Amino acid sequence: MSTTYKLDTATSRANPTPAPMKRLTVPKVMARKKDGVTEEPLVMLTAYTARMAQLLDQHCDLLLVGDSLGQVIYGLPSTLQVTLDMMIAHGAAVVRGSYHSVVVIDMPFGTYEASPQQAFENASRIMAETGAAAVKLEGGEAMAETISFLSQRGIPVMAHVGLTPQAVNALGGYMARGRSDAEEAKIIADGKAVAEAGAFAVVIEGVVEDIAIALTKAIPVPTIGIGASAECDGQVLVTEDMLGMFERTPRFVKRYGDIAAVISDTAAEYAGEVRDRSFPGEAQVYKAK
Length: 289
Ligand SMILES: Nc1nc(=O)c2c([nH]1)NC[C@@H]1CN(c3ccc(C(=O)N[C@@H](CCC(=O)O)C(=O)O)cc3)CN21
Ligand SMILES: CC(C)C(=O)C(=O)O
Fold this sequence. Notes:
The chain has one domain: Alpha-Beta Barrel (TIM Barrel), CATH 3.20.20. Helices cover 37% and strands 15% of the residues. It is built from eleven helices and ten strands. Helix 2 packs across helix 4 (84-96), helix 4 (84-96) packs parallel to helix 5 (116-130) and helix 5 (116-130) packs across helix 6. Residues 1-12 have low confidence and may be disordered. The site of 5,10-methenyl-6,7,8-trihydrofolic acid (MHF) has 15 residues, from helix 3 and helix 10.
């Protein structure tokens, strides 16, 4: 017998209702783009933990368990050090914390590039061990065969073109892409190739705006922009960037909150009360009857 949870809709702070059939689905996400037009843009944010997923779920269409977690929560120098086990642990937490959004999990560097077979072995582990609806992987034409292999075998794939952070060593940094004619042609060709291969959506990251607009018009599946254009079919940001957790962020980030200051000020208040012995107070201590 399974436990039934009730969602507290007033605060949405209760445990999520485990109702997988009520989740938005990959086909429904694709259907949001009709005859090349997306009336209401798709909303996507990253989530790495169950609690953050609970808080974001009702506001989003998709939640991305991004390999950016390497930098954002593990303090690693890049996304290259992120492992499959890390993605699976955080992916499962985000699926447990959400009931509405489509959860997409990044395939980490080194777990999909060697062959379609390697990608399938690792993507199927992600799907089976997390309950997520899709995986995301970086790359264009070079990944088309793999994207086709996975999508034909029941694993929806979100592609990622333009500035692909796992290729930071080849690209020479996190500069925006598409500032030369050759790069522009490559990004358009990559986007078309992954869409033709069966990607259900394409993240376009860090590209000159005109390229993002042209690619959005050129392919039938939704484009999700980050450092791209408001004309993309949806947008994604790293949640901690959006919340204002970091002082230094890429140009494409808009800080909607100032959470770093809230955390620092709150910790300072706690530290002060511990030091002057005003915490714990009457309300926080146990008394005998
Ligand atoms: N917190 C966080 N947010 C992200 O968006 C993110 C990560 N981490 N980790 C993985 C990758 C790395 N990303 C990055 C990192 C740096 C820039 C950046 O600073 N770019 C310059 C480009 C300047 C230019 O080309 O003119 C910038 O100033 O935006 C961009 C994307 C995006 N991803
Ligand atoms: C920035 C987004 C698109 C991403 O790939 C990540 O969070 O890793």
